[in-house]
Amino acid sequence: VQLQAYGGGLVQPGSSLRLSCAASNLYYYATAWFRQAPGKEREGVSFMRKDDGATYYADSVKDRFTMSRDNAKKTVYLEMNSLKPEDTAIYYCAAVRKKYTPTYLFNTWRRISTYDYWGQGTLVTVSS
Fold first, then answer.
1. Interatomic CA distance for residues 14 and 53, integer angstroms
2. Number of CB atoms found within 10 A of residue 120's CB
3. Cα torsion for 21, 27, 29, 32, to the nearest 10°?
4. Residues 6+ apart with CB under 8 A from 28
5. In this structure, are strands 43-48 and 55-57 parallel, antiparallel, or unpaired?
6. Using alpha carbons only, how large is the chain's radius of gyration in Å?
7. Are 102 and 126 spatial neighbours (Cβ–Cβ below 8 Å)?
8. Of the candidates 60, 44, 57, which has an alpha carbon nearest to the alpha carbon of residue 96?
9. What is the pLDDT along the chain (128 residues), one digit of tens a residue?
């Protein structure tokens, strides 16, 4: 699958931004958003199971970010609200087709090695 992430930009603290990730055959993949800030390791931000659309979030973005999916448009979204300077990073979308158990995914969705496919990143800068 080819993944194409877009929607990044420069915003002020407290603002909102929506990232999009277009993917062919999206229905067959569990998807995730990761981010990598300058000088830091890539970290998992959110994850969505392919069968039931259940989502998981990193504690740092819980209640501020929402991940969603539109199968008809073959796109996953990351709605980001109340953005903070520490949200500044390159954001990546990732996908995995292998069917893992919900328990396994709950424990491993943050691992880069879980995913087979990655899109190019889109830069989000939160600054006044």
1. 27
2. 11
3. 40
4. 1, 50, 97
5. antiparallel
6. 14
7. no
8. 44
9. 789 899 999 999 999 999 999 987 877 889 999 999 999 999 999 999 988 889 999 999 999 999 999 988 999 999 999 999 999 999 999 999 988 888 888 899 999 999 999 999 999 999 99
The DSSP 8-state label assigned to residue 121 in this structure reads: P
Residue 24 has phi, psi (to 5 degrees) of -75, 145
**E runs forming strands in 1-128:** 3-6, 9-11, 17-23, 30-36, 43-48, 55-57, 65-70, 75-80, 89-96, 117-118, 122-126
Answer yes or no: are the C-beta atoms of 13 and 125 closer than 8 Å. no
